[in-house]
Structure prediction request, 441 residues.
Amino acid sequence: MSRKYAERILNLIEKSPTAFHVIENAGKILDENGFSELKESEIWSLQEGGRYYVKRNGSSLIAFTVPRPDYKGFRIIASHSDSPCPKLKENPEIKSKDYVRLNVEKYGGMLLAPWFDRPLSIAGRIIVKDDSIPSGIRSIPVDLDKDVAVIPSLAIHFNKEANTGYSYSFQKDMLPIVSAVNESGADRDEKGNSTIMSLIAGKAGVEEENIIGHDLYMYIREKGTVWGMNDEFIGSSRLDDQGCVWCTLDGFADAVKSESECFDRPEYVKMLCIFDNEEVGSRTRQGADSDFLEKLIARINDNLNRSSEEYYTAYANSFMISADNAHALHPAHTDKSDPVTAPKMNGGIVIKYSARQSYTTDGMSSAFVRRICEDNGIPYQTFVNHSDEPGGSTLGNISNSHVSVSTADIGLPQLAMHSAYEVAGVEDAASLRAFAKAFYD
Prediction:
């Protein structure tokens, strides 16, 4: 059962090479579960028992239920849709001797070496002119779904330091090859179209000259797999944080189904958030440091004709789970982990702590999570950084600067975080789905 569920997660990750595809596919799952999409730019009329979701920028989403107008508070799980990767710059093609390469920059804290010598493709969104709609522009998700590029390593014969601490120049070493310059020396095809944008336009079914903007990213083409002597591991790109996205979304959908079977409506609004741009600090219109969640909570309150006092008491009665993956014990670098609390893959979900509050978990919020796990037979473990290795942060504490509710940070244990290909445990995905359902229930 765990393997089958892990394969579902791998299939969703394969279909979601960028944040835009994550949100598109999440919307489809919500549609299948009876949710209706709302637009921020339109007037809402929320109904008791309603199921809704809202997108922002096409790369973030918040879904919620309305149990009854006198709800007591919110039960929120938040994860993020983005992952570190090369991002195409504007006018991305560079013609050098015999080759056309793409001018890219780092998006997020990438491990660079794993991106070399792998088949790569391009996905994201393009913005096109469209005079048939009032805005005159339209966003189209696009995925070339084709082995179109490689970032070639420099042979060790020319780089004697390749295995002893070579420092990469992203601008020099990390530009992928997409084409050979043709015999005339031109970097255009026979129709006069640019090498890569003509492919993207063709895939999207538009004319290249109508493309007036883009957000395009590289991704590796290898499919995720279940592996290990006993099929105990999963390997894939973008496990951070799509592992949490899909497991918590499934748990959310499971809880909504069970809610509809109850005679009495529950007292809490179930809410699922998928934010973009966590890997670059969340300080965007669609990130956890935006007003997206804060304004949506206020809008629900106002739409149901609740008072400001009810708004404040709902805040006080709310709880958030920040779901972002955790570092598992590395067999070759055990000295990087805390000597006592070093999570292991297939050991259960991870509750994350930090004295400097890069994770929001405290004694009270931890107890809440532990109680849910213990009452429902869900395995869990704990993580704190080695005191000499401060580690990173996540979206919980950033979101709390806008929506200040009791919060705990959890995640799936994994290796090779921020690599082009990451590793996690088969059993843990099912554990996180079960936790999400129990949390909402």
Observations:
- The longest helix spans residues 239-260.
- The chain has a mean pLDDT of 92.
